[in-house]
Amino acid sequence: MKFPCIIIISIFLLSCSNIQKSQELYNKALTQYLEKNFSIAKELCLQSIKEAKNPEALLLLSKIYFFTNHPNFEDTIQQYISLTESTQGYTLYARWQMRQNKFKDAKTLLQKALEHSPYDPAASYMLGSIHYAEKEYDEAIISFYKAFANYYFLMLIHKQLATIYSDIGLADRSSKHTIMVKAITAFDKEFPMEE
User: Fold this and answer.
1) What is the rounded CA–CA span in Å between residue 82 and residue 174?
2) For burial by CB atoms within 10 Å, which of 11, 23, 68, 148 has the most?
């Protein structure tokens, strides 16, 4: 009876050790990523994942692969999504699909993101952009309004809505959004963000 208990406790302790080591490697990878040392960050992420399936390391590795246009992006982001079903994973994957001009797949991913987090402004904005590109103006307007219900001063949304309303002949509404773009631009010039 003692021997099986010792084995179970040993496996548990080894597992905890691997998780801790994985987290330490991830933290180092994140530091390298923030310093834009992508190759070192990638290697540290791979080591972290080897120690334990660390979702944070999978997401960071996915971002590195995304920005470096690496062929392992899809496999890595799918692993991350399978572990977390995170909105962040779905939106990053959707951006990849948009980059590949696979708008139908991107829409599906964004809709999944919004199922998990209905108020995600990035997913709503991206979905609105696809609807707009496909001249689905009603759906685009709805998506853009959902996006700025959570981040009202996002200038890109105002620009998109101004263009849509202009395209469909609603000059007054277009003008209101153009005024917002000008106001945000003036505010940003008067109160620049510190770097």
Assistant:
1) 41
2) 148
Count helices and strands in the chain by DSSP H and E runs: 10, 0
Query: pLDDT digits over 58-78, tens only?
Result: 999 999 999 999 999 999 999
DSSP annotation of 29 reads H
Q: In this structure, are residues 96 and 111 in contact, taking their beta carbons and an 8 Å threshold? A: no
Question: In degrees to the nearest 10, what's the CA dihedral of 143, 158, 88, 150?
Answer: -80
How many CA atoms are closer than 13 Å to the CA of 131, on its beta-carbon side? 22
91 vs 95: CA distance, rounded Å: 6
Question: Is this model's pTM higher than 0.85 or not?
Answer: no
Cβ–Cβ < 8 Å for 90, 110: yes
Q: What tens digit of pLDDT does each residue of 122-155 get?
A: 999 999 999 999 999 999 999 998 887 777 667 8
* SS3 track for 43-108: HHHHHHHHHCCCHHHHHHHHHHHHHCCCCCHHHHHHHHHHHHCCHHHHHHHHHHHHHCCCHHHHHH
